[in-house]
């Protein structure tokens, strides 16, 4: 685990603001879901990704399929094929 050197206080509602530099470096956008874990005396935050979320579109659907260990939605596959076709 690496220290960022950043300290924040918890406000009266129990909230902590994550600095923009940290959000940018982790690819966290407004309204992105975050998972919260605990390990002994640590709180661990991780950007949430559903287990079957498409790696291209982020869409979660029962129609998604796994290819080579990654999930793809029908729309994600179409986008990949379009880019591949344009690259020819």
TrEMBL record:
Gene3D superfamilies: 2.10.260.10. InterPro entries: B_subtilis_Trans_State_Reg, SpoVT-AbrB_dom, SpoVT-AbrB_sf. Signal peptide: none annotated. GO terms for molecular function: DNA binding. Residues 5-50 form the SpoVT-AbrB domain. Keywords: DNA-binding. SMART domains: SpoVT_AbrB. It holds the Pfam family MazE_antitoxin. It comes from the Bacteria. NCBIfam families: lp_hng_hel_AbrB. PANTHER family: PTHR36432, TRANSITION STATE REGULATOR ABH-RELATED. This is AbrB/MazE/SpoVT family DNA-binding domain-containing protein. It comes from Kurthia populi.
